[in-house]
Write a structure and sequence with these properties.
Number of strands: 5
Distance between the termini: 25 Å
Radius of gyration: 14 Å
Number of domains: 1
């Protein structure tokens, strides 16, 4: 079952996607999660744990790219898994793919998220 988790850090939203995004309901879940981030200036889609993406998921990413551009929001893909990256290579995305080395603000956001998660336990 695909899952989506949102962490907000100031004007940045990190949307963590896990599972297989091959059915429409998964694509709709992703769309709804991202489009709810209207106060974010940067939305990072963490694709580390997304194991597969189908045509509906790719179409959703294109839709989200346009949605973000129309709202002057930076939409970034982070660490897509091998099978997902293979699919992304076949689509003409204007979204930059980030690696950990290229994104110190993402590393900082992840550290802050980890600290806040552990403090709740």
């Amino acid at each position: 079952m695909p899952s989506v988790r949102i962490d907000n850090l100031g004007e940045m939203a990190i949307v963590e996607c896990a599972g297989r995004f091959v059915r429409n309901d998964a694509a709709f879940k992703l769309r709804d999660a991202v489009t709810s981030q209207t106060n974010a200036r940067v939305v990072i889609l963490d694709l580390t744990d997304m194991h597969a993406i189908g045509g509906g998921g790719l179409g959703t990413l294109l839709l989200l790219q346009r949605w973000a551009q129309n709202r002057d929001i930076r939409l970034k893909l982070f660490n897509p898994s091998g099978p997902v990256l293979d699919k992304l290579k076949h689509v003409d995305f204007e979204i930059a793919t980030l690696s950990r080395n290229e994104s110190p603000e993402l590393d900082k956001a992840q550290r802050c998220t980890f600290v806040s998660d552990t403090s709740e336990a």
